[in-house]
Amino acid sequence: MKVAKDLVAASATPMVLGILAEEDSYGYAILKRINELSGGELDWTEGLLYPLLHRLERLGHVESDWRSVAGERRRKYYRVTDSGLAELAEQRRQWAAVVNTLKEVWRGPDGPGLLVAMPTGGRA
């Protein structure tokens, strides 16, 4: 299953901020973590991640620095700032409202049936 681009775009900021709230990280490791957490459902590219990281840096939500690890090339590491943690908290609040509303919509008037089996055709 491929996740729609608009869902990927909408969820990208809280995912990256959440990962960086766990620990500082660099681009490839962030991509790998997204893939692991999604069970392979979200296979982000560098073309999605790096513009997002640069935007988050411009907004002051993340900071970066170059680090060298013995035997490896230098990598640009990103870390979440206090502003980024505040943004993450707000994003969590907003996503909780969306998820809870979707659960209610999918539950429908007859109980939890729609949560178990979504219709395959006709009206969704």
Secondary structure blueprint with pairings:
Blueprint: H1 5-22, E1 25-26, H2 27-37, H3 46-58, E2 62-67, E3 75-80, H4 82-107, H5 113-116
Antiparallel strand pairs: 1-3, 2-3
Protein name: PadR family transcriptional regulator
Pfam families: PadR (PF03551)
Domain Transcription regulator PadR N-terminal: 16-90
What features would you describe in this structure?
This protein has 124 residues and is mainly alpha-helical. It is built from five helices and three strands, in the order αβααββαα. The protein has helices at residues 5-22, 27-37, 46-58, 82-107, 113-116, and strands spanning 25-26, 62-67, 75-80. A three-stranded antiparallel β-sheet has the order 1-3-2. Helix 1 packs across helix 3 (46-58) and helix 1 (5-22) crosses helix 4 (82-107). The longest helix has 26 residues, at 82-107. It is elongated. The model has no long low-confidence stretch (mean pLDDT 90). It holds the Pfam family PadR. This is PadR family transcriptional regulator. Residues 16-90 form the Transcription regulator PadR N-terminal domain. InterPro entries: Metal_resp_DNA-bind_regulator, Tscrpt_reg_PadR_N, WH-like_DNA-bd_sf, WH_DNA-bd_sf.
In DSSP terms (H or I, runs of 4 or more residues), the helix count works out at: 5
Using the CA coordinates, give the radius of gyration. 18 Å
What is the chain-wise order of helices and strands?
Answer: HEHHEEHH
Q: Flag low-confidence runs.
A: none
Task: State the end-to-end distance.
Answer: 17 Å
Task: Classify the secondary structure makeup into a structural class.
Answer: mainly alpha
Coarse morphology: elongated
Q: Percentage of helical residues?
A: 55-70%
Main sheet strand line-up: 1-3-2
- The tally of beta strands, per DSSP, is 3
Percentage of residues in strands: 5-15%
- Largest sheet, described in full? 3 strands, antiparallel
On the 0-100 scale, what is the average pLDDT? 90
